[in-house]
Design brief:
Elements (H helix, E strand, L loop, with lengths): L5 E10 L2 E3 L4 E4 L10 E8 L9 E3 L2 E2 L6 E5 L3 E6 L9 E4 L2 E4 L2 E10 L3 E2 L5 E7 L6 E5 L8 E2 L6 E4 L3 E6 L5 E2 L6 E5 L4 E2 L4 E3 L2 E7 L6 E5 L2 E2 L6 E5 L4 E6 L8 E7 L2 E2 L4 E3 L1 E6 L2 E5 L3 E2 L5 E7 L5 E6 L8 E2 L6 E4 L3 E7 L4 E2 L6 E6 L4 E6 L4 E3 L4 E7 L8 E6 L2 E2 L6 E4 L8 E9 L2 E2 L6 E6 L5 E5 L9 E6 L8 E9 L5 E5 L11 E4 L6 E9 L3 E2 L6 E3 L10 E4 L4 E3 L3 E6 L8 E7 L4 E3 L2 E4 L4 E6 L4 E9 L4 E10 L2 E4 L5 E2 L4 E7 L7 E6 L2 E6 L3 E4 L8 E10 L2 E4 L3 E3 L1 E2 L2
Parallel strand pairs: 12-19, 21-30, 32-39, 39-47, 41-48, 58-65, 67-75
Antiparallel strand pairs: 1-11, 2-10, 3-4, 4-8, 4-18, 5-6, 5-9, 7-8, 9-10, 11-13, 13-16, 14-15, 14-17, 17-19, 20-22, 22-26, 22-38, 23-24, 23-27, 25-26, 27-28, 27-29, 31-33, 33-36, 34-35, 34-37, 37-39, 40-42, 42-45, 43-44, 43-46, 46-47, 46-48, 49-50, 50-53, 51-52, 51-54, 54-55, 54-56, 57-59, ...
């Protein structure tokens, strides 16, 4: 249907002008009577007159310049321009001898259009009326808010226009420009109702209607106005455009759509068709989920029937805030970690988002595994922490990941606690930090080794007591050897045959050094150590080690049979706790110098003695002594077992003045040319006799003895060395 007539009437007050002329000066003023709002120019023109001294007066008052009154002077004229005539400009103007008087009346100005819209290949007629002006001036602007205008080459009251735009008109004369009429917004047909094709369910769809400026435009579906609800929202995007957004398209949104103005449909109905059988196919893929350090990852988005894409980055899968990337292609390269998705974004269609893909960025911050305490070898039962140190961690809130020999560990804390460890936690540990979709590189591995048992070894020096000498103890903990404190004990025999351990030092916190000195010992004593580190880890007790006395004059002494301290292999040897042991429970103790350990031997107890019997294997060296269940230890004897030749020498100390015979004994009968006897490494006898006799032994005879049997330079047999101990009578 045709649009109604649209017109505009501008009504203002007419101002009449009266002028008086005097000789020598001409006053030029408009022929037509000015109206309120007109622009008026009044000129004083003269010859042979100094125009610099010429002034304009209104009602005998000097006219000065202001916002609406500008005065321009030349050599021949003074020109006053009133940019917009008002009722205060009414009066008598004088220029030398000319007077100009303004009187008020009314002027009519209006414009109308025969249609708002220029049809295809057509035009729209506009008509303008400005009272007292037969040929108005036509103006065209691109929009209502634009000040710049185009002056049309038309000077008729009625014109035809083929372009859209904002049109107005006004009267123009040599010295008067009237106010403009109200503006009329004319539109071209173009595509006034726009809607997309190829719509799928769940798409966001835009329908766009173009109509007259600032009019109430409505959308109709199948002839019924569409109202706002959660799935249908409306927005004016410009003075002439309104959009309807279908948030999530469904089958019920199919139908014929049109738009109109207050019930009047402006355009032909168009059909919106939707694929209702399925959603649009959207697939997002990444060539890697981890951006290498200073690298990038390519993301690819495939969306059915879409040419333009929108890429989205979030900092969490649970946040509604996101960043739109400045990319519209199907493939993009990203340099930063985050949660990425894509969707199609055509002019009138926004597809649903794809599934999320989480991309991690590798940063240059280094990570290091730091044990606390700084041990990489620990014993079963110990506790420690592994701390993940990340460079510049004060600048980021890191979450930590841990691995043991390539297997992820269930912790996200900076410190990984290992309590009461077992061998199963041995392995290569590494860590890295992650935060805000950034990850450090995995640290270099730190190898942690858990050792089955912590059994220290105590050593004593010297092994045999000398009068007044100190004994040095040393406690050795097999690797790792760091961080220990040491405890020192005396081994005291118990009736059970075991030992109790009495702390030597009164300091219950232990010593920091692995050595300890004992002074004033005079009898056989056993020692034990153990070590501790951390807050609550202690090693086992070391096996006992002994320092022996040979001639302390203990009440009970070991009795060796045969009496020698050396014996041939497989000889039957017995050691007993001799006289003085019958009233207490004594036992024979044997310590192998070969294996550095206490050894068991066949033993039996008679009414008065405890006897240890053994047939020793070759190359055995052992120390024997007696212990009581009340904690006493006797002097000790040193027994050596040898295979070929032995030195028969008293096993027990010999009192001074007694005769001593030392002889060489062979396992097999043989004839040797010479027998050599040595004391403390010096030859003391060389003959064919296999015996060395001392008629009355003295302290000077005390020392280390051995013998050699020599048949030829190629055949020499040597006995082990043994100590001859001499005591005062």
């Amino acid at each position: 249907m045709d649009s109604p007539w649209v017109w505009s009437l501008l009504c203002s007050y007419l101002i009449a002008v009266l002028c008086e002329t005097t000789q020598g000066v001409t006053l030029e003023a408009p022929d037509k009577t000015p109206w309120l709002g007109d622009s008026v120019t009044v000129r004083c023109v003269g010859s042979d007159i100094d125009m610099e001294k010429m002034s304009l007066y209104k009602d005998d008052r000097l006219v000065t310049e202001d916002v609406s009154h500008q005065i321009r002077r030349t050599n021949t004229r003074v020109e006053l321009t009133i940019s917009s005539v008002s009722d205060t400009d009414d009066g008598v103007y004088t220029c030398v001898s000319n007077d100009w008087i303004i009187y008020g009346q009314s002027r009519h100005i209006w414009i109308w259009a025969f249609s708002w819209i220029v049809p295809d290949q057509g035009s729209v007629a506009l008509e303008c009326s400005v009272e007292d002006f037969e040929n108005p001036q036509w103006l065209r602007r691109s929009s209502l808010n634009v000040l710049d205008f185009e002056i049309l080459n038309e000077h008729k009251t009625r014109i035809s226009v083929t372009r859209g735009g904002v049109y107005s008109c006004r009267g123009v004369d040599t010295l008067i420009i009237t106010k403009e009429t109200n503006a009329i917004d004319i539109m071209e047909t173009g595509l006034p109702l726009l809607m997309p094709s190829g719509v799928f369910i769940r798409d966001t769809v835009i329908l766009r209607c173009v109509g007259p400026s600032n009019e109430n435009l409505h959308f109709y579906k199948d002839g019924v106005i569409v109202k706002t609800d959660t799935n249908h929202q409306f927005k004016r995007t410009s003075e002439t455009t309104v959009e309807m957004m279908i948030v999530s398209a469904s089958g019920s949104d199919q139908g014929g759509y049109s738009c109109g103005m207050d019930g009047a449909t402006l355009y032909t109905t168009k059909a919106l068709r939707i694929h209702t059988d399925r959603s649009r196919s959207i697939e997002l893929s990444a060539d890697s989920l981890l951006i290498p350090e200073r690298g990038r990852v390519m993301l690819s988005c495939e969306i059915e029937s879409i040419q333009k894409y929108q890429w989205i980055r979030r900092t969490s899968t649970h946040t509604s805030h996101f960043e739109i990337l400045n990319e519209a292609t199907a493939k993009v390269y990203v340099h930063h970690g985050g949660v990425y998705s894509c969707r199609g974004k055509e002019e009138l269609i926004l597809t649903p988002e794809s599934d999320f893909v989480t991309i991690w960025e590798t940063v240059s911050n280094g990570a290091v595994v730091q044990p606390e305490p700084d041990w990489t070898e620990v014993f079963v039962g110990e506790s420690l922490y592994l701390r993940c140190e990340v460079e510049d961690e004060g600048n980021s809130q890191w979450i930590y990941e841990w691995r043991r020999t390539g297997v992820d560990l269930p912790t996200a804390t900076r410190e990984y606690a290992l309590s009461n460890v077992s061998e199963s936690v041995s392995g290569n540990y590494s860590c890295r930090g992650r935060g805000a979709y950034q990850r450090t590189q995995w640290s270099q591995v730190t190898k942690l080794q858990v050792i089955d048992k912590a059994v220290p070894v105590v050593s004593v020096s010297p092994s045999w007591l000398s009068p007044g000498a100190s004994v040095s103890l040393n406690c050795d903990v097999t690797s790792p050897s760091a961080g220990w404190r040491f405890y020192w004990y005396q081994a005291v025999p118990l009736p059970s045959g075991l030992y109790s351990y009495e702390l030597l030092s009164g300091d219950t916190s232990g010593t920091a050094h692995a050595s300890f000195s004992v002074h004033g010992l005079s009898s056989t004593t056993g020692f034990v150590c153990r070590a501790a580190r951390g807050t609550d880890f202690y090693t086992e007790y070391s096996p006992p080690r002994f320092v022996w006395s040979a001639d302390a004059g203990s009440r009970v002494a070991p009795d060796v049979f045969p009496k020698s301290s050396q014996h041939l292999t497989m000889d039957k040897v017995s050691v007993s706790c001799g006289p003085g042991s019958s009233d207490e429970e004594w036992r024979v103790q044997m310590f192998s110098l070969t294996t550095k350990s206490l050894q068991q031997c066949r033993s039996h107890t008679t009414e008065h003695t405890h006897t240890c019997e053994f047939s020793a294997p070759p190359e055995t060296r052992a120390v024997f002594w007696c212990e009581s269940g009340t904690g006493q230890m006797s002097d000790a004897v040193n027994i050596t077992i040898h295979d070929a030749v032995v030195l028969l020498i008293p096993a027990l100390p010999v009192p001074e003045g007694h005769a001593v015979s030392v002889s060489c004994k062979l396992r097999h009968s043989a004839t040797f040319s010479f027998v050599h006897f040595y004391k403390d490494g010096q030859l003391i006898q060389k003959d064919s006799s296999r015996q060395y006799n001392i008629s009355a032994v003295s302290k000077s005879d005390q020392g280390s003895y051995r013998c050699e049997l020599q048949e030829s330079a190629q055949q020499v047999l040597t006995s082990p060395e043994s100590w001859l101990s001499v005591t005062c009578e």
